[in-house]
Amino acid sequence: MATRTRPSLQEALHSCYPDEVLRELAKKAEVQRRTRTVTVTALFWTLLLGFGTGVKRSIAELHREFQQATGRSIVRSSFYDRFTPQLTAFLKMVVNWATSTYGEPTEKLQGRLAGFRDVVVTDSTVLRLHDLLLGTYKACRTNVGRAAARLHLVMSVTGMGPRSVRITGERSADCRNLKVGKWVANRLLLFDLGDFSFHLFDRIARNSGFFVTRAKSTINPRIVAVNRRWRGRSRSLVGQQLQDVLGKLQRGVLDVMVEVEFKRRTYRGKQSSGVRVFRLVGILNQDTGEYHLYMTNIPADRLDAEDISRVYRARWEVELIFKELKSHYQLDRLPSTKAHIVEALIYTAILTLIVSRKMLVALRRLQGVGADRTPERRWTITFHSCAARLLDLLLDPFAAPARWRRLEAFLTQEFLDPNRSRSRNLSVTWS
User: Fold this and answer.
1) Angle at CA 100, nearest 5°, toward 98 and 101?
2) What digits encode the pLDDT tens for the residues 324-343?
3) DSSP H/E element including 245
């Protein structure tokens, strides 16, 4: 029987960002034109497992880490010279390659969501920057800071990383950065109130996609049909405006079809109007007596009103990603006064997140365990604790397989959650 010569954990790491891909993209970005002491692959992994994990937050610390991991001596000024706009362009290229490679779901949706190809969440977070970057990234509120960037992510709730990453100024809205096309077909997109746009929802529907969003409490569309009827002398809703009846209802669930009007984008100096019929769902909050309103185009015979409210909770996944990026990958600490350095740090954090997720998926498959036993947040802490060991092994071409196996055994022991009775991720797996 043949023995395995390379541990699976090592395979997962090396295959995440193959050397040939890194060298090709580095050549396009003109990062490295000839063989140097600081190779692009060594610098790349030092960035990810040093800067990316938040362990090393200065170039001086990174310089020492690089020399220790590679066993090579390099003048500090020569190492500093590598942090150029070309390096940032290279990291952006790697991010684009990674999002197209790892942005798709890693597992099929189950239960009532099995008919959808994927559940996709779009959101953004604000990153406060040094005031000297005001000219590049202008903030909305000057009492907090004059400069701020907005990181936009579009990601699958079961993928290993985002399928789209964009960095803009704080004033840029999410809906303006979402490119709707054929890729949304049979995918379910989840939005928050910041993305509420009938024009956006119309484009998703025209491309055979589905959406669920929180609805603004002030919208007042006309009700054209009722999906759920109540026994007894229930109030007639068809033909009435939503705000005229919403405060008078006592039913626990509101499920109706509404007609909305909207303006399309101006094209060649002309702007046309559109009319759409969407589904409006309201779930009564017993404590406040007010409805939580959701808008969607999913038919009532596919997901009922309670399901719509429940699937919307999957948005929490992207909120946890942003929390992870800020707390563990240090995106809330970007002190540089140079725009290309700030962008490089953001791209590095995204790439490190993808490495972490790919390792987690590999370990789950090796051990035959599911997501309920291996929560992402627990794994993140484990991953950060061994980042330096991973870097040493990756940059050592003569690392003994036994060292990889010992690290794999340690990670396998630590990433399992002892509280196995806790249910997680119900939003995408309920039956």
Assistant:
1) 60
2) 888 877 787 787 889 998 99
3) helix 242-246
